[in-house]
Amino acid sequence: MESQNNTLFQPISLGSIKVNNRIAMAPMTRSRTTEGDIPTPLMAEYYSQRAGAGLIITEGAPISNSARGYSMTPGIYTEEQIEGWKLSTKAVHQKNGKIFVQLWHVGRRSHSSITGEKPWAPSAIKVSDKVFGPLQEGGYGMIETEMPRAMNQNDIDTVIHDFTVAAKNAMEAGFDGVEIHGAHGYLIDQFLRTTSNQRTDAYGGSQENRMRLLLEVVKSISKSIGADKVAIRLSPFVSEGMGNEHDPEMPELTLKVLQQLQPLGLAYIHFSENISDYKKVPEEFRKDIRNVYSNPIMVCGKYVKNTAETIIEKRYADVVAFGQDFITNPDLVYRLENNLPLTQLRSDSHSTFYGGGAEGFTDYPTYQKMLEKELQY
């Protein structure tokens, strides 16, 4: 049952850590915290089950109360949250796994019923969008976002500070590093794009100005915990959270960002692709990236084993992250390496993506457990 091509299963160094294989578990919001957005023992079990991944990237962890956009997502800004996360990092490390926390500020993709205040954004521009929050009739579900307020300089300084403190908190919680969420129409991505950023100060207008917040956040965190423990996720060809408007400047701007990040020696750059409203990434763009960026690159977006192998062999990427396949296959790496069938999403799986308990979260069996159950009958 051995795979004939082992590229995916070779170790690689990502900044300060060495991972056992090139398969990462992508960040996926699951909304299963307790009151106060505190990570739980059930979450520790969920991540521990998937520790065979070369690297686990957690679901997005808001860096402050105002950064929140989905109810019951685990924060990284209070002592109780830090203590809660220690359960997950310890559980993953006990299985010889590595784990980064994704640091998250959603910007305008929120609602005051979630944060208690108007959403923050580079400009007061709203697009049609929904997030997971409290329903007027009770319970939780998808709700329409609110008109955001434009951030002032004090707000920007606060965000940079909050990202940096969150990174320090991550180190205290035992994480191997942090991934900054700069993709999917969230705050940093909102600053990058002309469709959401119509500022006239130092953070708007030119590409260099729109890149400023991203670079200041990355450099501040890198100075605080070491650049080799820092990564960032980008999605230049995805228009999620942007009212399905694609900014034609994003490819060029992204290359400029990478030129600035190259000398820092980050753990990796993570490109999210092929989700929501997207455009296919041109091969020429991948070549352009490699011309300006030689450090580790991760890609994610509906990859399967053979396409993951191919993009690594072409040297366009060094690691491939898998999302929903890790939900239903806690032993995904073992199954891919041994060419075993994957468990597919159940017909009711989407109802268990956000919120709830163990069902659809920690109750998917490994291949070995499935075999044992079959032998019992």
Tell me about this structure.
- The chain is built from 12 helices and 14 strands.
- An 8-stranded parallel β-barrel has the order 3-4-5-10-11-12-13-14.
- The model has no long low-confidence stretch (mean pLDDT 94).
- It has one domain (7-375): Alpha-Beta Barrel (TIM Barrel).
- The chain is of the alpha/beta class and 377 residues long.
- It is an enzyme of class 1 (oxidoreductase).
Into how many domains do the coordinates divide? 1
- CATH superfamily placement: Aldolase class I
Number of helices: 12
What is the overall pLDDT average? 94
Envelope shape: globular
| Sequence of strands across the biggest β-sheet | 3-4-5-10-11-12-13-14
What is the H/E order?
EEEHEHEHEEEEHEHHEHEHEHEHHH
Structural class: alpha/beta
Strand content: 15-25%
| Overall radius of gyration | 20 Å
Biggest beta-sheet profile: 8 strands, parallel, barrel
Secondary structure tally: strands: 14
Helix content: 25-40%
Q: How far do the termini sit from each other?
A: 25 Å
CATH topology: TIM Barrel
Low-confidence stretches: none
Q: CATH first level: which class? A: Alpha Beta
What is the element layout, followed by pairings?
Elements: E1 12-14, E2 17-19, E3 23-25, H1 41-49, E4 55-62, H2 79-94, E5 99-104, H3 112-115, E6 120-121, E7 130-134, E8 140-144, E9 149-150, H4 153-172, E10 177-181, H5 187-192, H6 207-225, E11 230-234, H7 250-261, E12 268-272, H8 283-292, E13 297-300, H9 305-313, E14 319-322, H10 324-328, H11 332-337, H12 367-375
Parallel strand pairs: 3-4, 3-14, 4-5, 5-10, 6-9, 10-11, 11-12, 12-13, 13-14
Antiparallel strand pairs: 1-2, 7-8
